[in-house]
Amino acid sequence: MSIKNLDKVLKRVQKATRYSGGELNSVIKNPEDVKIRYAFGFPDTYEVGMSHLGMKILYHILNLRPDTYCERTFAPWIDMEEEMRKEGIPLFTNETHTPVKEFDFLGITLQYEMCYSNVLNMLSLAGIPLLSSERGEDDPFVNGGGPCAYNSEPIADFFDFFTMGEGEEVIGELMDAYIEWKESGGKRIDYLKRIAKIEGIYVPSLYDVTYNDDGTIKSMTPNCPEAKPKIKKRIIEDLDKVIYPDKLIVPFCDIVHDRANIEVFRGCIRGCRFCQAGMIYRPVREKSPDTLLNDACNLINSTGYEEMGLSSLSTSDYTELETLTDKLLELTEKEKVSLSLPSLRVDNFSLDLMQRVQKVRKSGLTFAPEAGSQRMRDVINKNVSEEDLINSATLAFEGGWNSVKLYFMIGLPYEEMEDIAGIALLAEKVVECYYNSEKTNKRRGVNVTLSVASFVPKPFTPFQWAPQDTMETLAEKQLFLKGEVRNRHIKYNYHQNDISVLEGVFARGDRKLGKVLLRAHSLGCKLDGWNECFNLELWKQAFSDCGIDMAFYTRERSYDEILPWDIVDIGVSTQFMKNENEKAKKAAVTPNCREKCSGCGATALCKTKKGCVCFE
Ligand code: SF4
Hints:
The protein is about 35% helix and about 15% strand. The protein is α/β, with parallel strands linked by helices. It has a six-stranded mixed β-sheet.
C-alpha cells in the first residue's frame, strides 16, 4: 500500500488539517533512531481526540523515551474515508504519514462504547486483521485502554491486550518488555504471555469463557500460568511526581476543548451511584497548587493558548481551590490568558470565585441536579437539595447571569413518573427565583435550558445490576416531561434514547457481542456517536443476523450472576457496591469521602498515604 496520493486527497477533503500533521509541538523524530514505533489511535474525529487529556499525557511520556516514537492517528471523517478507500490509502499517522500497519503498536483509547464500530473501521482501513487471533507475527500489537477497557469483553476479540487504569507507569513497562522480547527473538504469543504478568494488563486470548444455558457467564478462567485470575487496575499514587506534559500540541483547526488544561486531581469524593468515573478513579489524589502553577506556566509558555482550563471530575471539591485560583489568576492576568472554571457544584457554588474568574464574560452557567425530586436525588446519592440549587441560581442571577443550563437524567433505577415531573417543577422554581429577586434585570428575562439524558447502567457502579429502560419507555418518559414543561423561559433538550440503549448493551456486554460488532461493521456502521451517521436500523439488523437479543443485556442482573467485568479489581469492593444499591432502594444517602469514610476499599490499591484525602 502507498500514501503517494495523499497530498492530492488532502486538497479534496474538508478540514485537511485533521490529517496533515505539522502542528506546533507535534513531535518529529527520525524513525530510524528508535526501537519502537507506537501509533496512538483515537477512535473518533481529530477534533474530539485532540481534546482528550489522556492521549496528550501518554504521547508526551512515550516521546520522552529516546527509544520510542509515538505518533497520532484518528478516525477519518466520511469524506476522507471515501477518498482513502478509493485511492488505496491505508490508515496513517499524522506526524510522518506512515501506514499504521508498519508500527509496533496501535494503542486505542476507549472513552465511550459508541466508538467500537470506529475501532473496527480503523483496523480495516489500516489493513490490520480485525480479529487478534488472525494477526501475524508482523502485525502491530493492538492495545486498548480508557474507561471502556474496564469491561472490554464485547471488544475482546479485536484487541491483543488491554491496560486497566492509569497508564503513565505501565506504558513504560510495556515498552521495556517489548524491547527485551524483541531482543530475545520470541514469537508474538511470548510477548503477550510476558506482559500478562504485569499488573494491570489483561490479555483476553489467555482466558476461556464458558456460558450457562441461559446465556449468562459460567466461568472466565486463565488458560495459561502467566494469566492472572484477577487484573488489578493501575493507579498513580503521587500525582505531584507523575510526568505531566510541558508542551501540548496546538491544532490548526477548532477542536472541542481548545485551551491549555491542567489536571487538578483524580478521583471524586462524591459517591453518585450512577457514575462510573466516580468509582473507577477512586481514591481522590490531588496535585499541590505549586505543581499546578508550574504545569500552567509551562503550558502558557509553550503553546500561546489564550485560555487555561482546570480539569477534574469535580473541580470545586479541590481542597485548595481558593489558593490555586489566586495563584493562577496572578499568572494568567500577567500573561493575558483567560482562566475558565468548569461548572461548579450546586451546593458549593461561589459567586465570588465565578466573578473573579469570569470577570466580564457572563457565559451560561451549568448545574447538574441530575434528578427532579429530592427522593430521586437521594436514590442516586446526589447530595444536593432544592434549596442548594435555588440559592446558587439566585446568587448567579443577582451576579449578572441570566442563563442557566440544568442537567438531568431519566430512566434512573427506582424512578416514578412524579420524579420526572419534578424536573419541570424544579426548572420553574429556578425561573421564579429570577423574577422574585429584586436585584435581577427583569427586562432581560431569564433562560433555563433542561438537558435531559437517558440513564445507562455502567459496570463498576452500584447500579451495575439495574435494568435499563427500553427505547419505548424512555420515549414515553421524554414525551411526558415535554408535556410538563409549560414555561416559555424553559427550553427542553433531550438525547437520542436509541443510542443510550445501544450504549447500555455494550457497556454491560460480554464476548458474544464481538460477532455483532463484526456484522455491524460489515453493514457499514461507523461514527455512531454522531447523530448524522448513527443508523439504528443497521444495528438492529446486526443483532438479528447474529441471533442476539439486546434485551438480554439491558435486563436486571442478580447479585449471584458472574458479570463480564468481574475479572477486574478496581479496588472498590463488590460488597460496597451492593450496600450502595440496597441503600438506593431505600433512598438512603451515603456521606461524601470528606465527611466520613464509607470503607469502599479503594485505598487498598494505594500503598502510600500521600495525596489521598481518604486518610486525612
Ligand atoms: S476508602 Fe473511604 S474515603 Fe477513600 S474513597 Fe473509599 S469511601 Fe471514600
